[in-house]
Amino acid sequence: MRATLLYKLYLIARAKLEGRRIALVDEGDPDGIVSGALFRMKYPDGVVVLAYPTEAQKSVLIRSVKWDFVADLPCPGRAVLRADHHLTNPPCAEREFYDPSAPASAVLALKALELDGNAAASKLASLAVETDTANIVSQEAMELEAAVKGADYRGKLYLIALLAARGLEALKDERIRGFIERYGKSRGKTEEVAKALSPPPREAIVIFTRDERIAYRYLTILLEKAGAEFTFVLVPKGFFKYRVYVGARPSSKYNAASIASRLGGGGHKYAAGATFRALGIKGALEKVLPVLKEELNSNEIEAVVVSNGNMRKSIL
Ligand SMILES: [Mn+2]
Questions:
Q1: Distance between CA atoms of 59 and 7, rounded to whole angstroms?
Q2: What is the pLDDT of residues 251-293, one digit of tens each?
Q3: Alpha-carbon distance 263 to 256, whole Å?
Q4: CA distance 304 to 280
Q5: DSSP code of 21?
Q6: 95-98 and 66-71: which strand pairing?
Q7: Structural domain boundaries of the chain?
């Protein structure tokens, strides 16, 4: 965690000292990564920094910088150009390419960076649409998603650089094949957890007492496929940090974004998330339960608590 902060500081300092353009994109998914690659296609000597949405809103370091380009993230304070499609992120940059009805930020980034006519750039943006709308049909989109999820911070920056330089050929690179393989393993583990939780109730709420290092967003998708209409996953992430993944089936009455935004996060109606601080799992539940009870219109919440590999049902 600490090391990444220092690395971000280094990237920012280097860009500013060398007078290079600097971009901030979402660290979490292919849409952000592709947007970063598009920025590097336009400005090959530009510097890309990755951050999560909460950092863009709260990190003192991130907010102290004037960003030339921001994509798939809320406003980090000062920005020249921004491409985004999140309903929960109000416009803020000097020039906005903001459209909540766009299927991916990368599509808006394509226009913002004037890369519409570039075939390799358009292809990358189309993969971001596949992954961001949870409608992955091509092998390339599947591999891109796996590479992003399997890579660490520097690995993602490497992926961005290679996508910008070589387009989809980047997916054949040996180091990137390694990221894809790593993610494949965590997916397998996630599928086992989903199987153990199936058939899920209509409102599937899963509380992890420790980070099992599985693909939690994928878990919500699997639970929805298995019959859940609403999914909510709570996971500890590092010191006193908790991450929430919320999902809602498109045909259902649920709104994932409204729950996530009440926990300090945001996202889309069908997939949203939040990160917050709490002192232990008890404190985290104290934050989460009142919101769930109100949004689900219920006095008690039936959850599955996953603790050291054991699962038990619990009324909270
Ligand atoms: Mn997006």
A1: 14
A2: 999 999 999 999 999 988 999 999 999 999 999 999 999 999 9
A3: 11
A4: 18
A5: -
A6: unpaired
A7: 2-180, 197-315
Class at the top of the CATH hierarchy for domain 197-315: alpha beta
- Measured CA to CA, the distance from residue 277 to residue 244 in angstroms comes to 11
85 alpha carbon – ligand 1 mean position (Å) = 6
Helix (H, G, I), strand (E, B) or coil at 311: strand
Give the per-residue SS3 of 213-277: CCCHHHHHHHHHHCCCCEEEEEEECCCCEEEEEEEECCCCCCCHHHHHHHCCCEECCCEEEEEEE
Q: Rounded to the nearest whole angstrom, what is the distance from the C-alpha of residue 310 to the centroid of ligand 1?
A: 34
The alpha carbon of 72 and the centre of ligand 1 are apart by a number of angstroms equal to 5
Q: What pTM was estimated for this model as a whole?
A: 0.76
**Interval between CA 188 and ligand 1 midpoint (Å):** 25
Ligand 1: centre distance to CA 19 (Å): 28
| CB atoms closer than 10 angstroms to residue 233 | 23
CB of 190 closer than 8 Å to CB of 183: no
pLDDT digits (tens, 9 = 90+) for 219-235: 999 999 999 999 999 99
Same fold, 2-180 and 197-315: no
Q: What is the second-level CATH architecture of the domain 2-180?
A: Alpha-Beta Complex (3.90)
d(C-alpha 86, C-alpha 247), whole Å: 15
Q: What six digits make up the tokens of 190?
A: 């996630």
